[in-house]
Amino acid sequence: MSDSNDKPLGRYIRVLETVAAARTGLTLTDIARELGLQPGTAHRLIRGLVDQDLLGSAPGTKSYVTGPRLQALLHATMDQAGYAGLAKPVLDGLVAEFGETAHLARLNGDFAESVLMEQPSGADRAFVQPGRQLPLHAAASGKAILAFQDEAFVARYLSRPRERYTEKTKVEDLDIRNELAQIRADGVAVCDNELDAGVLSYGHPIQVNGGYVLYSVGITGLADRFRPMERSRIKQRLAEAAADLGRKLGFTA
Amino acid sequence: MSDSNDKPLGRYIRVLETVAAARTGLTLTDIARELGLQPGTAHRLIRGLVDQDLLGSAPGTKSYVTGPRLQALLHATMDQAGYAGLAKPVLDGLVAEFGETAHLARLNGDFAESVLMEQPSGADRAFVQPGRQLPLHAAASGKAILAFQDEAFVARYLSRPRERYTEKTKVEDLDIRNELAQIRADGVAVCDNELDAGVLSYGHPIQVNGGYVLYSVGITGLADRFRPMERSRIKQRLAEAAADLGRKLGFTA
DNA sequence: GAAATTATTTTCGATATTCGAAAGTTCAGG
DNA sequence: CCTGAACTTTCGAATATCGAAAATAATTTC
User: Is the dihedral angle over the CA atoms B145, B151, B153, B156 positive or is it negative?
Assistant: First the structure.
């Protein structure tokens, strides 16, 4: 009888399951023994999975853990209700302090998707309602995520045409790369009239345990009213919120 | 340049990501268009994924959703901290009401692994501390999960030898099958001195959106003290807790 | 209800990947 | 330095995958 589990795909998945089930990192030999594979085969399978970022190996060590792409996949499947319970209180805290709209965005393909939004009572119309796909080069929460992706991702993103939403939208490779560098240095991304006219927003990356950035948290408001707000305070509170959310959304790598 | 994403494994994963990112089920054509695949290729990839239970197709319809094996894999990558934020409040509620230990268990291989436990202050020694592997035939939270697995899983489980932990442990196929049927009818599983002597516990399956049961929630106490507690009340509160947890741990199918 | 359109499934030879076995490296302890 | 375990590479044979095209099924249109 030919078990469907000895097809190539099935073997890859069994390796993933083995690693995922382990509390701690597994070594090549662990995996080979567990699945009854010879070392050479296990090595090839693992390499394939690492190439796809489905497994990661803590640099320096020889043990493997679940990779960022698998974590992203998990988050992508989680229901919005799952996020709401975790993230809503944090967003509410931001709303209470600044009186502007706060939202949580998640990397989804080539966009940052808004997955949760909280507004002050009597808010303007929503610019970041859940489901909206925010461009990675022209939204604060998008830029905050893009700035912390690896070079291969950034290069791929920049290799494709980008839409210009307003006359202030940055579309040149160099402009965008410079801004990403600044975001990495500063910790916070700004989008001033680059996506929606008259709208100003701040975004902060959310780092989960492994250090990967899949989410960002942002505050958005009408530029005229929001601009005077003290920037250092916004930055500090966003950083706190991001740290809190990172813990709540986090994984043990 | 040969992108690692056009290797066979990468294409399978991209299909999974596409389906996972969609809020609703995707049809073959949707997937093919999204990924720029020709229909025949998409069909073969999808079929391979369905064979592995990584994708599922709602019976009758032609649209694909994430399958039970993918859900199990992704959940397995979540660690205790990830659960804590979601499930701790629910367990705390049970502890507050009954004054006994509550825990969340997850199907892991041929055992139900306790992944989170909450105890009343001044508790007895812990019988379900996180990490403990609870047998599927001799623990309330294990039986609650086993009762809702498909026939192939149950048959495979019963085809292998089972340990007898106490003289009350049920090990005969027929006894176990009868009890599983009763659990399906009743909704709640009981383990009375079958695993740890002097310990009584109740378990309730947790259904996530697709209907798959990967988790259960349970209450455990010393039999002498716990037995007098009103059973219907326990059952009702466990059902509520399970519904709540199912929402929080759930996926968009 | 027949024709046209769109969606799904199957077939095909060529190509690329995977397979297990065995040999070759690297690394850590004694 | 030697030894053994863990890790990595190599190899021809077996197998899965590839894109293109054709066949079937389901839906829509007229």
Answer: positive
Distance CA A11, CA A47 (A): 13
Q: What angle is formed at CA B46 by the lines to CA B63 and CA B35, rounded to 5 degrees?
A: 85
Collapse the DSSP code of A54 into the 3-class scheme (helix H, G, I; strand E, B; otherwise coil) and give the result. coil
The residue among B170, B166, B168 whose CA lies nearest residue B158 is B170
Residue of B2, B9, B14 to mutate for A, most A C-beta atoms under 10 A: B9
Q: For domain B4-66, give its CATH number from 1.10.10.10, 3.90.79.10, 1.10.530.10, 3.30.70.360.
A: 1.10.10.10
- Check residue A79 and give its pLDDT: 62
pLDDT tens-digit map of A99-155? 999 999 988 878 999 989 999 988 778 899 988 999 999 999 999 999 998 887 898
**CATH fold label, A73-249:** Beta-Lactamase (3.30.450)
Nearest 5°: phi and psi at A129?
-60, 145
- The reported pLDDT for the residue numbered B79 is 64
Write the pLDDT tens digit of every residue in B133-174.
Answer: 999 999 999 999 999 998 888 998 999 999 999 999 999 999
| Cβ-nearest to B252 among A79, A249, A252 | A79
Alpha-carbon gap, residue B104 to B245, rounded angstroms: 9
Confidence of residue A244 (pLDDT cuts 50, 70, 90): confident
Nearest-by-Cβ selection for A9 from B4, B52, B77: B52
C-alpha to C-alpha distance for B136 and B154, rounded to whole angstroms: 10
Cα distances from B50 to residues A20, A67, A212, B33, B43, in angstroms, run 21, 23, 30, 19, 10
Chain B residues with CB-CB distance to A77 below 8 A: 20, 66, 70-71, 74, 251-252
For residue B157, give the H/E element and its range.
helix B151-158
Tokens matching residue A28:
């090549």
pLDDT at residue A62, as a whole number: 82
Query: What is the distance between the alpha carbons of residues B105 and A197, in angstroms, rounded to a whole number?
Result: 50
Q: In strand C, which positions have an atom below 7 A from any protein CB? A: 6-11, 17-23
Gap from A35 CA to C29 C1', in Å?
28
Amino acid identity at B163? E
Structure tokens given for B157? 């489980």
Interface test with B, best of A14, A73, A90, A116 (most B CBs within 10 A): A73
List the domain boundaries for chain B. Answer: 4-66, 73-249
Q: In this complex, which residue's CA is closest to the C1' atom of nucleotide C27?
A: A62
Q: Is residue A136 a contact partner of residue A143, using CB atoms and an 8 Å limit?
A: yes
Largest CA-CA distance found in chain B, in angstroms, rounded: 71
- Chain A / chain B CB contacts < 8 angstroms: 108
Summarize the confidence of residues B200-213 as an average pLDDT: 86
